[in-house]
């Protein structure tokens, strides 16, 4: 399948008064047509900043320091804002966590969809309406023609997120970055939307980057997983393999802290400590202070090791079961 | 929507009824106008005849009900001093205040919102910092001083603009207006600037705060992610999102400036209602004070009602609640 997105050594940092915060530190990955990539990690691991970097929407004082973001054969890093804007929404779109906050409460769905359409295409009223109805139908909004003139508050949370997804789909982008889009929804709606997103990705060939801190939802959707910690990718591989056989202790910790894996009545297991401040990262492995396997060698940065489809960044990778 | 309007109208009439009592009692507690109206050398007979003819011998509640009775016939009473119907007196002065205040409040709002959005959109630019410095001045420098400095600079030293009065007026709908003639307009500029300065500062602050807050929201990020241009985001998304507090303050400012443009009207000898009320307070001209305060209350009630209707027009969520 064709490669739509190739990210190499992406570094995004925030230049604050307290110092330089390296929010994304050398992230590389590729994305093929129709593929669903899960980006997981705790809060502050750099997932969301990675997503915003892809769209060139990192707010000041943040900026992309180096790296390449090749979308459909063209590098986006260093492109002027005007050029980036032409690609946003058309080639790469984004949906957010809270659908209440993303849609403008004061504008009708028709107005908001038309604005998004007009950003990249000039079409007549009738054609625009037809396109809006088409995508709303695709994301499962019943009776889309009459709902076009509704306002966001007249939709339920799940429906609102569908509208947001519909707006992202308007121009059939190659990539959609979904930043925790189901976190604010209740579980049954989550499952519906996950299911629909997967079939949408297959139908339209749109590749998805699904950002989440929730391994459980991502694993039901993503074909590949990227585990981030302190701005770095610490483990990468096909979802099932990573989940069944994590090589990085951090991934192991994430999996163990899932409520589904816990014994009822016993306290949930958790990763000790908290994510490190990105201001004061040393040379070594950033996970060292929280890692039970850490030794002196962990004071040097672990290089990326790779075997076929898997990659990890650890001096003491966990044993490969079965494969070993 | 209709239910909402009716409910607000009932509320408004209750407010007006309460206001009339408070104003009436309040004004009558301030002092007795008899000592000012009647010369000290007048005989006892003349004194008593005058008091009777003005109805001041009656108990307060009776005076109130006579006042309310007359009010229902559209009669606000006669001025003690000018011996003219109060309504005529006030309406004769109102257009002057109205044009001055509307010009200054509207231009302060338009200018303030534009400058404020810029200052909020590019908060670190030198222009934004200059705008904010000017707004601090607008808040802290007293209005009378600004008025005097404006006269000193533009009227006395430069001689570009007149220092006071309304200038040439033109009659429209039977009322005299200054803003329709060039001479009249040149007379409005300085007092309008004087009145607008504080309001401009306030609107800048409001618009800037709203812009800074709104630009960080996911609504704006989502619009950007859809590739919508910055200009359209500012015009279509931001302007609407920050409009509610701005319209609220616009309404309040419009009302309070119409009622209390006293300082500016005095400095620029602008023959508006502000000067009228100050003069009538000085001579305890009760009918003028009462009528003026009640009309002011009515003005506030009407402006608030309009503001609420505009809210409902802008925000569909308020519309849904009112229906």
UniProtKB/TrEMBL annotation, chain A:
PROSITE patterns in the cross-refs: ABC_TRANSPORTER_1, ABC_TRANSPORTER_2
Annotated keywords: ATP-binding, Cell membrane, Membrane, Nucleotide-binding, Transport
GO CC annotation terms, alphabetical: plasma membrane
Topology within the bilayer: Peripheral membrane protein
Signal sequence extent: none
Gene Ontology BP, a term: peptide transport
SUPFAM superfamilies (alphabetical): P-loop containing nucleoside triphosphate hydrolases (SSF52540)
GO molecular function: ATP binding; ATP hydrolysis activity
Transmembrane segments: none
Subcellular compartments: Cell inner membrane
Alphabetical list of Pfam families matching this protein: ABC_tran (PF00005), oligo_HPY (PF08352)
Domain ABC transporter: from-to ranges: 5-255
Family according to the record: Belongs to the ABC transporter superfamily.
Name listed for the protein in its UniProt record: ABC transporter ATP-binding protein
UniProtKB/TrEMBL annotation, chain B:
Protein name according to UniProt: ABC transporter permease
Domain ABC transmembrane type-1: 94-311
Major subcellular site: membrane
Organism domain of life: Bacteria
Keyword Transport attributed: yes
GO annotation (BP), single: transmembrane transport
InterPro entries named among the record's database cross-references: BPD_transp_1_N (IPR045621), MetI-like (IPR000515), MetI-like_sf (IPR035906)
Bilayer topology: Multi-pass membrane protein
Pfam families in the cross-refs: BPD_transp_1 (PF00528), BPD_transp_1_N (PF19300)
Transmembrane segments: 12-31, 100-121, 133-156, 176-198, 241-270, 290-314
Keyword terms: Cell membrane, Membrane, Transmembrane, Transmembrane helix, Transport
UniProt KW Membrane keyword: yes
GO cellular component: a single term: plasma membrane
Compartments in which it is found: Cell membrane
Family: Belongs to the binding-protein-dependent transport system permease family.
Organism name: Hwanghaeella grinnelliae
């Amino acid at each position: 399948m064709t490669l739509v997105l190739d990210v190499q050594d992406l570094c995004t940092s925030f230049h604050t008064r307290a110092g330089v915060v390296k929010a994304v530190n050398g992230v590389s990955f590729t994305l093929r047509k129709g593929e669903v990539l899960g980006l997981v990690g705790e809060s502050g691991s750099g997932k969301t900043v990675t997503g915003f970097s892809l769209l060139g929407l990192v707010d000041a004082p943040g900026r992309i320091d180096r790296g390449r973001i090749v979308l459909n054969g063209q590098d986006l890093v260093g492109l002027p804002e005007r050029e980036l804007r032409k690609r946003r929404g058309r080639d790469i779109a984004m949906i957010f966590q809270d659908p209440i906050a993303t849609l403008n409460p004061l504008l009708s769905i028709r107005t908001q969809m038309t604005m998004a359409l007009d950003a990249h295409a000039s079409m007549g009223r009738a054609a625009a309406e037809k396109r809006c109805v088409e995508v709303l139908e695709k994301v499962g909004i019943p009776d889309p023609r009459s709902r076009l003139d509704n306002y966001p508050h007249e939709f339920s949370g799940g429906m609102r997120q569908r509208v947001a997804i519909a707006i992202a789909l308007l121009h059939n982008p190659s990539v959609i970055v979904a930043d925790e889009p189901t976190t604010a929804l209740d579980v049954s709606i989550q499952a519906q939307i996950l299911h629909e997103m997967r079939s949408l990705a297959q139908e339209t060939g749109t590749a998805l980057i699904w950002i989440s801190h929730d391994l459980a939802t991502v694993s039901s959707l993503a074909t590949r997983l990227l585990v981030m910690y302190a701005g770095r990718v610490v483990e990468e591989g096909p979802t099932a393999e990573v989940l069944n056989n994590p090589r990085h202790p951090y991934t192991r910790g994430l999996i163990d802290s899932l409520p589904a894996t816990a014994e009822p009545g016993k306290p949930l297991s958790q990763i000790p400590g908290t994510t490190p401040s990105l201001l004061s990262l040393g040379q070594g492995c950033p996970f060292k202070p929280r890692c039970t396997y850490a030794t002196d060698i962990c004071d040097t940065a672990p290089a990326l090791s790779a075997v076929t489809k898997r990659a990890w960044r650890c001096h003491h990778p966990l044993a490969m079961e079965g494969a070993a | 929507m209709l239910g909402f309007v009716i409910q607000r109208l009932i509320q408004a009439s209750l407010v007006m009824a309460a206001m009339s009592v408070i104003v009436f009692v309040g004004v009558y507690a301030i002092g007795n106008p008899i000592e000012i109206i009647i010369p000290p050398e007048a005989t006892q007979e003349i004194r008593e005849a005058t008091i009777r003819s003005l109805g001041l011998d009656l108990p307060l509640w009776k005076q109130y009900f006579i006042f309310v009775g007359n009010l229902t016939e559209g009669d606000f009473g006669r001025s003690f001093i000018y011996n003219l119907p109060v309504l005529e007196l006030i309406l004769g002065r109102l257009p002057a205040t109205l044009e001055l205040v509307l010009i200054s409040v509207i231009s302060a709002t338009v200018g303030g919102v534009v400058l404020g959005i810029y200052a909020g959109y590019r908060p670190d630019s030198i222009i934004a910092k200059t705008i904010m410095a000017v707004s601090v001045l607008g808040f802290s420098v007293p209005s009378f001083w600004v008025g005097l400095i404006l006269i000193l600079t533009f009227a006395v030293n430069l001689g570009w603009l007149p220092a006071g009065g309304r200038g040439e007026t033109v009659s429209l709908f039977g009322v005299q207006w200054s803003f329709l003639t060039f001479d009249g307009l040149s007379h409005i500029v300085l007092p309008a600037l004087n009145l607008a300065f504080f309001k401009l500062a306030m609107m800048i602050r409001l618009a800037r705060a709203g812009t800074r807050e709104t630009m960080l929201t996911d609504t704006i990020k989502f619009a950007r992610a859809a590739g919508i241009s910055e200009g359209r985001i500012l015009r279509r998304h931001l302007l609407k999102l920050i409009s509610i507090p701005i319209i609220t303050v616009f309404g309040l400012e419009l009302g309070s400036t119409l009622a209390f443009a006293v300082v500016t009207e005095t400095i620029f000898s602008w023959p508006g209602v502000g000067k009228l009320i100050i003069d009538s307070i000085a001579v305890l001209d009760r009918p003028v004070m009462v009528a003026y305060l009640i009309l002011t209350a009515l003005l506030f009630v009407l402006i608030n009602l309009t503001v609420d209707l505009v809210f409902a027009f802008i925000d569909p969520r308020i519309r849904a609640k009112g229906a």
